């Protein structure tokens, strides 16, 4: 009977890793592998196996796993340790509801303060999103697009919460776009958001954002319904 391939074999390490960079390199490498699907849901990540893979002690591995757990990419499971988290869970809708509350407020605060230079930078992210094929980069560009719209909001704690939510959403974004074919649709939404912001029409911009995020909620509801049936 053939041995099952180890998903960790898909993780390539350019070593040796300097000790002071070990935690950050391990975190980024594992995060990218989770986001692009190389490390599947339910996979247990053993500290010693990772330490051997990266050629480091277990301490930076432990610290990296804690960071990934804080980003909700890993869950700690009894007797298994750190496990790659499910793609979508029952509280995923709550996360989107929270995004709507936080991001519409940031949009209201930021849009009146944006200038043409800001709008051109935001538009450039949309242009890149339309041609990008790497889902890790799609997630990064999507985050930069949204944070560009909110960047002038003076409430820095609000912006920090929003960015954390966008980081956590990057993994679901890959599923959203690949499984549901929403790539073109998302960019149409983004362009509508930008147009209303550029016109200074705050309420229309807020409504466009609600509509855009509601699509994510609808995808989650369909996925959960299919999973239960």
From TrEMBL:
Keywords: DNA-binding, Transcription, Transcription regulation. This is Putative regulator PutR for proline utilization, GntR family. SMART domains: FCD, HTH_GNTR. GO terms for molecular function: DNA binding; DNA-binding transcription factor activity. Residues 20-87 form the HTH gntR-type domain. CDD domains: WHTH_GntR. PANTHER family: TRANSCRIPTIONAL REGULATOR, GNTR FAMILY, TRANSCRIPTIONAL REGULATORY PROTEIN. It comes from the Bacteria.
């Amino acid at each position: 009977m053939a041995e099952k391939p180890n998903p960790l074999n898909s993780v390539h390490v350019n070593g040796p890793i300097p000790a002071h960079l070990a935690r950050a390199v391990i975190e980024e490498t594992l995060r990218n592998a989770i986001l692009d699907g190389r490390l599947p849901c339910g996979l247990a990540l053993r500290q010693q196996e990772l330490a051997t893979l990266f050629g480091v002690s277990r301490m930076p591995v432990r610290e990296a796993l804690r960071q990934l757990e804080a980003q909700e990419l890993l869950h700690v499971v009894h007797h298994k340790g750190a496990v790659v988290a499910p793609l979508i869970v029952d509280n995923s809708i709550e996360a989107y509801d929270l995004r709507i509350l936080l991001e519409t407020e940031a949009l209201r605060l930021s849009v009146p303060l944006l200038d043409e230079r800001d709008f051109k930078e935001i538009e450039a992210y949309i242009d890149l999103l339309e041609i990008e094929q790497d889902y890790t980069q799609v997630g990064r560009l999507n985050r930069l697009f949204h944070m560009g719209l909110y960047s002038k909001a003076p409430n820095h704690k609000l912006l920090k919460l929003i960015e954390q939510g966008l980081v956590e959403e990057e993994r679901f974004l890959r599923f959203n776009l690949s499984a549901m074919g929403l790539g073109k649709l998302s960019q149409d939404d983004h362009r509508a958001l930008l147009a209303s912001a550029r016109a200074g029409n705050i309420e229309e911009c807020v409504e466009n954002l609600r509509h855009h995020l509601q699509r994510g909620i609808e995808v989650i509801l369909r996925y959960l319904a299919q999973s239960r049936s």
